[in-house]
C-alpha cells in the first residue's frame, strides 16, 4: 500500500503533479482483445476538464491522452496500458502567493509536515488534476464492461436538490446542461446559483448520485472487501469528498426493519430496493445506487487569513482559477471510479 | 484480495460462521514487546456480545477469546497472533425455518447464488457474529497505540438524535447507559424507544459517531489510500452499515467555501475543524471524527413474505433472537475497526 | 506484506510457534463446493510429521488438524477455512540450554535483534514446525485441482543422487521407502548414509525434485509474477532452502542456444523441455519441473561453540530431537507449496 | 496481483513493449528529500543498453529516461515518480519473419494462447527490453540506500567460471572489461569465448553473482516473505533466469551440519558465512550473496524449425539483433532488482 494504486486485478496506478511535465498512469489487468473507442475516452476527458462551461474553472487544459503501450492494432493485448497526459500550459504560472503559505483547507500544511518537502506549484500531487488519470482508467473499464450502465449526475448543489427518486429521471438529459443534472428545473436553479456564487468569489458544495444498472448477481468479496465498502473507498479517495451512502443510506438509520426490508419477488428480484442492490456485500442484481458528498472547493477569490511557513498569519487573496462548483466536473470521476471497482470485481469473481 | 483480510502492515484475517465450531482470526504485524492487558480485551468483547442488556438480543454468547500464538510471557513477540472464540451454545438450534428460505434483506439469496452452496445455520459467514473477531483485533490495536483516544457512541436511534456537538459531550458517560449514548437525556429517550420497538417485534436503525483524538500529523497515503478512505471502507465493511461521513460530511455539501474553510492558528492547528482532522487524505493533528449509519436489523419478529428456494413466496415468522437495535453493540466494532486502521497507518508511516 | 500470508486469491495465512498452544491457519479463497477428503489431508500431515520412520527426528507429534469453519456438510463453502493443529506434548520440555544462547545457524540471534524479544521455546516461530500449516493448505489446494499431478521426491542426499531423468522414474515408488526416493538403488544408499550420519550425531543436506503434470497452457502473470518466480519464492520460503532451479536450471547456464531451444511439434508441444514447462513466465502445457536445495539441519548432537546473550562464547551440546536429514519430510511441504501456487494462478487466470 | 508491479512499500510498476511508443514505469514509495544524481541513473541505463560493446547485441537504443513527476528541484517529494523511455528507432523494423511464427523457446506461443492476441513486433511485452524500466527503479533505490553496497558481476559464461571466492575479487574491476567479470584472466577467456559463439551465430548462458554489503540486521519478514525468498522471486522474474541460490546454495545440499553451521563471534558476526547473510529469512548483518543462472538467448543466427500459427513446421532464420551472451548486460538488472528488494524491506522494517 504505497498509496497510488487502486484495485487488485484491474489495477490503476497514477502519477503526476498539477504543474509537472505530465500526469499519467498504468492500467494493469484490462482484459485482452477489447477494441478501444478512443473518442469515447477523450469524451470522458472532456467532461472532466476545466474550462468546459461558464460555471466551472476557466483554466485551460487540453487533457489529451497519449497511450504508450498495451494496445496493438486498436485492441488491448492484456499487457499494461501506459499513458500520459501532458501538462501543456501550467508551467509559466506564478506561485509566489502560494510558495510560503499553507492555504486553508488545502493539503499544503500536511504535505510539508509529512514529507518534509512540498511541490508548491499549484496543489502538486494533492491537486484534483490527478483525477484526470482516473478518468482514463474508468473510460477503459467502461469499455471492458459494455453491458453495465453507469450513470452519475449532480443531485444537489448547496440547498438545491432534485426531489424525485432516480427512477423518475431521464439519464439522457444529464449532459443537456452544464450542471449535469437530469432534472431540468433543478438544473436551471443550480446553474443560476453557481453563477451567483461565482460572482461572490465563493464556492459551493454538492452531491453526486450514481446509478449502476444491469449488474449480475455475485459481485463482492465478504467480509472486508464488500462491494459497497470498495465503492465507498473509491469515492472517498476523490478530492473533496466528505461522505458516501448507498441504498437507503443515512435515511435508513431512521427506519424500522418492517419498513426497510426488501421483499423478494419469485424471480429473486426485490419489490423495493432500499438495500441499494447489495446484500451482505454482494450484488443481488438490482440497481446499485449511491450518493457522494463534495465539500466546497477551498480556493476562494476572497481574502483569507493564511498561515505561512514562518508561523505568521498573513492575508492571502485567492488568484488564478476559480472553480465555483466542482460537482459537475466530478460526475465523470465518480463514474470512472465506479467502473474500475466493477471491472476489478468482474475479474475477481470471473463474471466475463 | 480474497476478502477476509484487512490492513497492510497491521493486518487481520478472520474466519468463522455464526454456528460453526468457532470464530477466530490472525493478527499479523502487531509490534513486539507490547504487554497485553487481557482483561481489556475481554472487556471489549463484553461490550459487543449479545445478551448484555435489556435492549439487545438475548442470545447467550460467552465470547471468550483463546490466544494460541504470538504472545510469550504476556508480551507480543512480533509473530502472528492466532486466536479462537468457540461457539458454545449455538449448535442445538433449529434452522428448519431458514433452511429453504431466503430471508428478506439478508444475504441468504446472494450467498447461494454466488457460491452455489449455503451454510444455512444462522447467517453463516454473513452473520454479524463475525465482528467478534474484529473486536479482538481492535482491542490489540488500541493497546499498540496507547496515546490515541478513540471514543465511539450512539448519536441517533431512529429520529432521536443528540443535538449537541461532540465537544459538549462527556465521553466517560458512554458506558453509563445501555444505549451507549453520552447525552443522558437522549439516552433515556432512545432506550424507551428501543423497548417500544422491541414490543412491536420490530427493529430500528441508528448512527454511531466516532471521535479519534491525539492523532499525530502525517497519517495517510494519498492518493487512493487516503486516511478517511480507508476509515470509510473499514466502517462500510461492518454489517448493516449504509453510510459514512467525516468532518462536515453531507452537511458540508451544502456549504460555501468561505464558511467551510478551516483557518489556521500559528501553531498549525485550525480554528474550526470541518475538515474532520484530515486534509488531502493525511491527518493534520486535529480531532478525526466521523459518523456511520446502520440500517435496522433485518430479522423482525413479525410475519414476512419470503422467497423459498423453489421460487415460492411463503410466509415466514421471525424466530429466536430479536435484536431490536444493533447500534449500541456496534459501538465497540466501530472503535475496533478505527483502531486497526490507525495501527496500520502508524506502521506504514513509521510513527512509533 | 506483514509476512505470514501467501497467495493472492488462494491465500494462506499461518500462525503458531513450535511450543505454543497450537499452530494453525486460514485458507482464504478456496473454491466452494469441493467435497473434502479428510483422510487425504491427514495423510499429507503424516508424511510431514516427525517420528514417521527410523531416519527422521523421533519427536512425537500427532499433528491432527481440526477444521473450524468454511466447510459445511463436508463441502467447502467459499468462506475462509480456519484450522488448528494443537501442540500436544511440547510443553514440558526443557529449554534451559537454549534460553540464553543463540544457536549457530538458527534464527535465534536475528529474531532477538529484530523483535527485541524471543520465544525461546524451541525455534518459536522460526521452527519448521510452522510448515505443518502449509501442508494443510496444500492438501486442500490439491483437492481443488484434481486433474493436476504433483509429485515431489528426494533426488539427492549429500553426494548421493539419482542419475536418471525424472521421466525414467516410477513415481508410485516414492512412498515405498522412508527416504521418498523413487529410484530404489539410490534410496537404499541414501537410507544407509542417513543412518550413518545419525550415528555421528550429524546432519546432512539434500535436494527435492518436483514434477507437475497436466498443467494447462496460460498460468502465470508476466512480468513480475511469472509462474516460476512465484514457485521459486514459495520454495525459498520453506525452512532450510538455499536454492531453486527449474527446467535446465544452473546447467542451462552452460549451454548454447542451439542446444537449449525447445523445438515445437505441430500441436504446440515441444520436442525437448529444457524450458521446464514455462515460457516467459507462463505455463506452456509441458511438464513443470524444478529442484530445491536444502541445507543440513543446524541442530547437531555434537558440542558446538555458541554465543550467549551476554556476549560470551560457550560450549553447547545439542539435545533432544535429532533430525539427521530433513529432506524426506520436506517432500510433502514442497508439494504443498507448489499446489498452493497453482491454485492461486488457477483462480487468477480463471482456468476452472 | 495483476503482474506488472513489484514491491509493497517501495513499489515499481512497469509498462511497455519492445517496439511500442515507449517503455516506462512508476516508482511509488521512494522516500522524500533524496537528491537524485541523474547521471548515475543514466549510467546504469548505459550498462544495460544494447550496443555498448563488441560482445553484445548491436541494436541501437538510446534509452534516455524522462522523469515526469515525483521530483521537485532535483529532490524526490515522496509522490510517485513517473518516467518514460521512448523507443526511438524500433518502429521501422521488419517483423514479417516473426508475425506468423512461434519462435522456439520464446514466449510467442504462450502469449497468443493466453491472451488470444499477440503484439508480434519483437517480443512485445515479453522482450527483455522491459528490464530497462527496472534499471531506473533500481538506480533510484540505490540512491535511497547510499550506505548499502551492491556489486553484481559475471561469475561464469558457459563452462568458464571464476574459481575464487568473491572475497578475493576486486569489485572495482567489474567495469574494466566488457564481460563485467572482475577476475581478469577469466574475463579474457570469457570474452574470447563469446566472440567465438557470436561467429557461430549461436548464444551462450552464464551466471551472475551478486554481493550485498553493509546490510543492517533485521531485514526480512518471516515466514513467507523471507528476505531471500523475495530476492529469489525478484531474480527469477528477470528474463532468461533459470535458477537462484544464496549462501551455500546447491553446494549446501551436499554438506553436513557440522561443516555448514556458521559459528558466532562475540559481536554477533559469524566466522564463516555459508548462510549467505540471512538466517530464518532475516538479514544477520553479514554479506548477502547469491548466484543467478541465465539460459542462452533463444534467438540464434542459425536456421531453426519453427511452428507457425497454421500448425506447420517451417524453417526460420534468425535475423536482426544477435545477442550472443546476455549475461554482461544482466549485471545491472540483477543489481537493480536487489536494490529494490532492499529498499522495500528498509521501508517495511523502518530502518532509515
From TrEMBL, chains A, B, C, D:
NADP as a keyword of this entry, yes or no, is yes
One GO cellular component term, please give it.
Answer: cytosol
Q: What are the record keywords, sorted? A: Amino-acid biosynthesis, Aromatic amino acid biosynthesis, FAD, Flavoprotein, FMN, Lyase, NADP
Q: In which pathway does it act?
A: Metabolic intermediate biosynthesis; chorismate biosynthesis; chorismate from D-erythrose 4-phosphate and phosphoenolpyruvate: step 7/7
Q: Care to name a GO molecular-function term for this sequence?
A: FMN binding
Instruction: Explain how, and how many, cofactor molecules are bound.
Output: Reduced FMN (FMNH(2)).
Q: What class of enzyme is it?
A: lyase
Quaternary structure and partners = Homotetramer.
Family to which the UniProt record says this protein belongs: Belongs to the chorismate synthase family.
Provide the function of this protein.
Answer: This reaction introduces a second double bond into the aromatic ring system.
Q: What is this protein called?
A: Chorismate synthase
What is the name of the gene encoding this protein?
A: aroC
Amino acid at each position: 500500500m504505497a498509496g497510488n494504486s487502486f484495485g487488485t486485478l484491474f489495477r490503476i496506478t497514477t502519477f503526476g503533479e498539477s504543474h509537472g511535465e505530465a500526469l499519467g498512469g498504468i492500467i494493469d489487468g484490462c482484459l485482452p482483445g477489447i477494441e478501444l473507442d478512443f473518442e469515447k475516452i477523450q469524451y470522458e476527458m472532456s467532461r472532466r476538464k476545466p474550462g468546459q462551461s461558464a460555471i466551472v474553472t476557466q483554466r485551460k487544459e487540453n487533457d489529451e491522452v497519449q497511450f504508450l503501450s498495451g494496445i496493438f492494432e486498436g485492441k488491448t493485448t492484456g499487457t499494461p496500458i501506459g499513458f500520459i497526459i501532458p501538462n501543456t500550459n501550467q508551467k509559466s504560472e506564478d506561485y509566489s502567493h502560494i510558495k510560503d503559505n499553507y492555504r486553508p483547507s488545502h493539503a499544503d500544511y500536511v504535505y510539508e509536515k509529512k514529507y518534509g518537502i512540498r511541490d508548491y506549484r499549484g496543489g502538486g500531487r494533492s491537486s484534483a488534476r490527478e483525477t484526470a488519470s482516473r478518468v482514463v482508467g474508468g473510460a477503459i473499464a467502461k469499455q471492458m464492461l459494455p453491458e453495465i450502465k453507469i450513470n452519475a449526475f449532480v443531485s444537489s448543489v448547496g440547498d438545491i436538490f432534485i426531489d424525485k427518486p432516480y427512477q423518475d429521471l431521464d439519464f439522457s438529459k444529464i449532459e443537456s446542461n452544464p450542471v449535469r443534472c437530469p432534472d431540468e428545473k433543478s438544473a436551471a436553479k443550480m446553474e443560476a446559483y453557481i453563477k451567483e456564487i461565482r460572482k461572490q468569489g465563493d464556492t459551493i458544495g454538492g452531491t453526486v448520485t450514481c446509478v449502476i444498472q444491469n449488474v449480475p448477481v455475485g459481485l463482492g468479496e465478504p467480509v472486508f472487501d464488500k462491494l459497497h465498502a470498495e465503492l465507498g473507498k473509491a469515492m472517498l479517495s476523490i478530492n473533496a469528498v466528505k461522505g458516501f451512502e448507498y441504498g437507503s443510506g443515512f435515511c435508513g438509520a431512521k427506519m424500522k426493519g418492517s419498513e426497510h426490508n426488501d421483499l423478494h419477488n419469485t424471480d429473486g428480484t426485490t419489490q423495493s430496493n432500499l438495500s441499494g442492490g447489495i446484500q451482505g456485500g454482494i450484488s443481488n442484481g438490482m440497481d446499485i445506487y449511491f450518493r457522494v458528498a463534495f465539500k466546497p472547493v477551498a480556493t476562494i477569490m476572497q481574502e483569507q487569513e493564511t498561515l505561512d511557513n514562518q508561523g505568521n498569519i498573513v492575508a492571502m487573496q485567492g488568484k488564478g482559477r476559480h472553480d465555483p462548483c466542482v460537482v459537475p466536473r466530478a460526475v465523470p470521476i465518480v463514474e470512472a471510479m465506479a467502473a474500475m471497482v466493477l471491472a476489478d470485481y468482474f475479474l475477481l469473481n470471473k463474471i466475463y
